[in-house]
Amino acid sequence: MGTAKKGQWDQSLADAYSRLECLTKESVSRDEQDEPCMEALLFSQLTRVYLEEEDMRVRQKLKRKSSQRISRVMHERVGEFLAERLPGLSFLVIDGLLFVKREEELLGVLKCIPDLGSYDTPSWNATIGRFAKQYQKRYKLAPDQLLFVVCSLAKSLDAAHAKALTGVDVWCGTALTTPAYREALQAYVGKCVEAMNAIPKPWEQLYFLSADVHPNALATQLIQGETASMPDRWLRPSVCEVIHFLERKL
User: Fold this and answer.
1) Residue 106 is inside which H or E element, if any?
2) Cβ 182 vs Cβ 210: under 8 Å
3) Is there a contact between 1 and 9 (Cβ–Cβ < 8 Å)?
């Protein structure tokens, strides 16, 4: 990278971090009347992971971001985030999973899923079930020890399935993430969780963040100087419930 290009890149990156900080403060300020907005703070940290990875990609002239490195760093950041709020617990990243312990007792293992990708909503149960079987075999984990956090539902919603579960009729899954369907989407997510039998206590094991904004997409918008915003709503069950769930185990 030439000196001029390096200077341009450094400035773009600095601007991206500055904008992210401003967006996070705005989001926390908007939501703090209800409760400290853990979701906004965590989403900001996850977006920083993608900013850092893009910086590494550009400086090392790599063709693409490393999904393996993103997963490792993402779990490290989630562990740091939870450790600040749960000082009685320890968090250790092993093979892309976050192990949660109280002294030597294993309380749970958390997997952070950036998005469900090509897995449409009807197959969430099968997807989570596949992860559960994989970790049970590899680490001898019981299904009730697994916790999942899905960062974004972008491109993973099924209109026909939404109508079947809630009666809400939309022309495409993406429409469910628009403000007009705010309550309908939450109702749909709730029914999906209720119907999940891949894990024994889905309401205590499966958590969500954003409906539509993806931390990777937000990082790209910030770097390119495009219009960007943090999610203006957070799905339930969410990060606050993760913290409350682990607090009860202290």
Assistant:
1) strand 105-115
2) no
3) yes
Q: Strand pairing of 90-94 and 97-102? A: antiparallel
* 3-class secondary structure, 198: coil
Q: Are 125 and 195 in contact (CB under 8 A)?
A: yes
Spatial distance between the Cα atoms of 153 and 137, rounded to a whole number of angstroms:
28
The two three-digit tokens of residue 164, written as one number: 């079947």
Give the number of residues written for the chain. Answer: 250
Structure tokens at 131: 């992860």
**Residue 242's closest CA among 50, 70, 89?**
89
| Amino acid letter, 148 | F
What does each of the 250 residues of the chain score in pLDDT, given as a tens digit? 678 788 899 999 999 999 999 999 988 876 555 555 899 999 999 999 999 999 999 999 999 999 999 999 999 999 999 999 999 999 999 988 999 999 999 999 999 998 876 555 667 888 888 888 999 888 988 889 999 999 998 777 888 888 888 888 888 888 888 888 989 999 989 988 988 898 999 999 999 999 989 999 999 999 999 999 999 889 999 988 999 999 998 7
Pairing of strands 105-115, 146-152: parallel
**Is-contact 109 97, C-beta < 8 A?**
yes
**At which residue do the structure tokens 């958390």 appear?**
110
